[in-house]
Amino acid sequence: MLRYNPRVIKEKASIVAVFTLTILMFLPLAHIIFTILSRGLPVIMKGGLKFLTGTLDEGGIGPAIIGTGLLIVVSSLIGLPVAFIVGVYSYEYPNSVLGKATRALLQIMMEFPTILVGVFVMGILVIPMKSYSALAGGLALAIILMPYVAIYTQESLRQIPFTYREAAFSLGLPKWKVILRILVPLARKGILTGVLIGISKVAGETAPLLFTIGGMYQTYPQGITKPVGALPLLIYTLIQSPAKEHHEIAWGASAVLLLIFLALFLPIRLSLKEVKI
């Protein structure tokens, strides 16, 4: 008579359960990607190069693509240096009053409604300038980007064993060199992951752009102090239209936005090598 080991049965059952739940977790993501590509790629192929370079009057999304790229660049230039410094400070001085307040504020900022960020930037920049602009949109997106980069920077540095700091200090290195030449390179994978997540987050944001960029799709951006368009805001605008052709353009723009995200995230993330410590 066969005898079954309860431990073996429980182990195999747990493996099957974990595998099943993992598949179920990724099914919605796979469905979203498949739906966007299956409905968006035919629109891109039908429109060809004109779809990617033409204005909205010509049935294209060229200004929105350039506007999205411009907003990513502006928000990164504003937000990344500040977020890196804040993350390093909260790591170096975790028990100080300012360090504790910084960590609490970062957690609040991650959960803060992004539409309120747009209203805030509108009040401090759009209204005084009397114009929507890429600068205002970039500032709003930078505020949204910063907590992700700062928290990932802090947590990545915390994973480095303290012995590395002790060894560096024993050689007489000043603190800033220990951080920039020793700790940051060791934590680069986690830090860059935070950067990618932050950029991916702001690349798909719509709510703060409603109050900051104006949505210009008939001409290409004229500068950071002028109104611009963006793919997420264009999709939001077109999907509310009753016209079928606008819905098709929205699907095409969604596919382009998804491909931009994949082109930014996957190559850099996969090229990062694990640092052995």
Structure description:
The protein is an all-alpha fold. The protein has one domain (47-271): MetI-like fold. 75% of the residues lie in helices and 0% in strands. It is globular, with a radius of gyration of 23 Å. The relative contact order is 0.15.
Topology:
Blueprint (H helix, E strand, L loop, with lengths): L5 H42 L1 H5 L8 H31 L4 H15 L2 H16 L4 H25 L3 H9 L4 H12 L1 H16 L27 H9 L4 H28 L6
Describe the structure concisely.
The chain is mainly alpha-helical and 277 residues long. It contains 11 helices and no strands. Helix 10 (231-239) packs antiparallel against helix 11 (244-271).
What is the percentage of strand-forming residues? Answer: under 5%
| CA gyration radius, whole angstroms | 23 Å
- Classify the secondary structure makeup into a structural class: mainly alpha
Q: According to CATH, what is the class?
A: Mainly Alpha
Q: Which spans of ≥5 residues are poorly predicted at pLDDT below 50?
A: none
As for the CATH topology, it is MetI-like fold
Gap from first CA to last CA? 51 Å
Order of helices and strands: HHHHHHHHHHH
| DSSP, total strands | 0
